Amino acid sequence: MGRNRTQPISSPHRCLIAGNYCHDVLIRDCVVLAEMLGGAASFISNMFDDVSVSYNLVSKVRSDFAYSVHRDPIVVSDCRTTLSHAHFDSGIEGEGQQDRVLKRVDCDPICPSDLPESRFELGMAIGVGGKIMVETVENWWRFAALCLWTFKLCFGFLMGLMGL
Q1: Which of 81, 64, 84 is nearest to 1 (CA)?
Q2: Which one is the CATH code of 15-161: 3.40.50.1910, 3.30.200.20, 1.10.287.70, 3.40.1190.20?
């Protein structure tokens, strides 16, 4: 399972997606309810597979990655697979927190050197700030004619630049 950083990605493809897979854990009142594949890479790749869009995916995980996926991620030995715990609290008589509390441990960010040297019609940087390096997004135009970034990615960068 997986590929190393130097293994070439087959081309040509219409779309390049960069974003990490993660292990999602749903917890309610300190009890694990579900563990599943998560992360923007899993959602977008499933959608593209369903509509037969040709794409390459750049995603980082560690050897502890627990899921079988259609596009093998880059396996990095010196980091952890992104782990996201969503805590829900029902409180007394079901009047707990109205929203979840997220706790996250991130994998290494996607760097410019992780991207293939190919050219794509569309490039999508999907993820939250910190999962894709600013330098990677700055160079995105080298890889794709049309580039899209998620709001969470842009918002994360801005928060970091403002020191928030």
Answers
A1: 64
A2: 3.40.1190.20
> How would DSSP label each residue in the chain?
--B-TTSPPP---SEEEE---EEEEEEETTEEEEEEEESHHHHHHHHHHHTT--EEEE-EE-TT-----SSPPEE-TTSPPEEEEEEE---GGG---SS-EEEEEPPPPBPGGGS-S--EEEEEE-S-TTSB-HHHHHTGGGTEEEEEE-HHHHHHHHHHHTT-
Q: What pTM was estimated for this model as a whole?
A: 0.70
pLDDT tens sequence across 105-123: 767 788 888 888 888 888 8
